């Protein structure tokens, strides 16, 4: 079904600018709307006949079409989003999937629109209300909430003054037992002695067979208080009934919000507590809906059909994903518990260490969104500075605090844990992140393609960085003195074989002459050359060879006359701007976070990150000492990959949209930054604050890192992949984890 596209690798002269063939190729890219289809291959659904590629080759020479470069055209609602999408393809910039501006309501799907509904819309036919989510609501909240309303109604009847609210609670007890398919309305036109049905409905009641105020049957005539009696009834309600129900609904709201899929129940409880229970009882009407009835006149306050919705993982609050919102209180709990209970009276070190690590995840998300927001609203220079300054702040904060604590305690184990975390981040981002994205993306897409040239740049930098980082280690293996802790003669012969344990290369022989005269200068030289190579890579990809990525964001409404789709897709604009999906209908940018707000959140998140990292390093010592698991394994897995979880989620989302290029770039960029930025910064830090950190790694770290980089380059050579290749990368990563798990702890731990 996919139309064949001629090989579009450009020759040395490049494509002929403005040719009709080039415009056709750009239109094919834009017709798909896929943001990640880079390079010269297409893996897309059927392209409309108006822009099909065969017509290009039928009307033009074979030579011109073969030199045609297929460009990836990004579509964005506004200029800020266009800038963010463009930054995603820039080397060294943080890749961010979520929007930094408010999406136009009309551009959202019906599924997403339903997530943000206020539960006040009556549908024509809601379908069956007997669902698993509704039954779960009944088991978790419905039965005891209904019972509580019955008890409050009894109290209101006993007070006599609160009798009107007693009837209200009695009716709402049945409503909250099973609120699905029922409606609560605020009605007008009530008189003190009339039934609780508006006059217009009294006319319609016989024709449509209207039910009672709640569950059916005739509508009762009840006495409605007026004057001083009404004020006394309200006072009794606000003192005795409302606080209890407010507390109950608050508990339901918080619990269901934390469960995420039950957010409709949270909205239901919040609206009931803050709106329904504060209205006069004679103004409320609760009833069951039927498919044939005529809607009443009056405002609909509550109308719920489903208690659960699995799509609420997409829900955002002011642009922040609901998972990050729910994990934010965990940060406050961690900080309060960690610094108030410093003597571990309430909880132990293991709990505090786990809470500190979990708190790093939402803080990493906020830091990432703040960086993306600032970069999207600023020029290139500001965005580059912000990404270079705060791009690795999460990892560096933990590493530096761990080294400081190890230096104060004189414990070399902290330095070994930091080395394990650095190696784990490198291996995980080279193998696990792209492998997992290939597997998940390959489930939806049979074969995924990516820009092999841009991946080649990252691969070359990875080879350079790995060679530079491990150069001092290889140097020490060649010229260092092998020292063993204990040796036994196996053959009982003085000239026979000896079995030695805890062997390592000693660099401090002869008062450290080898280390201070040879290894340390080599470390400083490498720490200067690696950031310089990183800057050259930035200059290469962002200035002199930007065509490697060949990403364009078109402003179709400003360049082309109003054309019907897909003819309007034939315009390709080489500059970055916003694409309006409908001609003449352009959306202005309404950002979630302004630059100053994003900067404030970035600084606060960094400060909280430092506090959480301090707590994690403070309480990791008992785990390293008492745990039977190797310290290598703890550093490679927990300490290395937990801070990268937001990046992993972004990579998976890109892969699901068939944008594997960004998924691969996420892992490669993190790995390159570990070697070319983070490690030189740690070396620079040790100059001003002496620690036990030396750029000499164990053999296991060296072999695992080099093998991972070689395997990654072999997989990425052809510019295409599937779930099988991703499975290979993930399995190799798990094999390395097993090696680290069974490896003995490093010396000094």
From TrEMBL:
Keywords: Antiport, Calcium, Calcium transport, Ion transport, Membrane, Phosphoprotein, Transmembrane, Transmembrane helix, Transport. The keyword Phosphoprotein applies. Residues 352-471, 598-740 form the Sodium/calcium exchanger membrane region domain. The chain crosses the membrane at residues 135-168, 235-265, 320-340, 346-368, 380-401, 421-443, 455-475, 522-542, 598-617, 629-649, 670-689, 695-716, 723-743. Its main location: membrane. GO terms for molecular function: calcium:proton antiporter activity. GO terms for cellular component: endomembrane system; vacuolar membrane. It is found in: Endomembrane system. It comes from the Eukaryota. It is a multi-pass membrane protein. GO terms for biological process: intracellular calcium ion homeostasis. Pfam families: Na_Ca_ex, YccF. Residues 132-182 form the Inner membrane component domain. PANTHER family: VACUOLAR CALCIUM ION TRANSPORTER, VNX1 PROTEIN. This is VNX1 protein. It comes from Alaudala cheleensis. The gene is Vnx1.
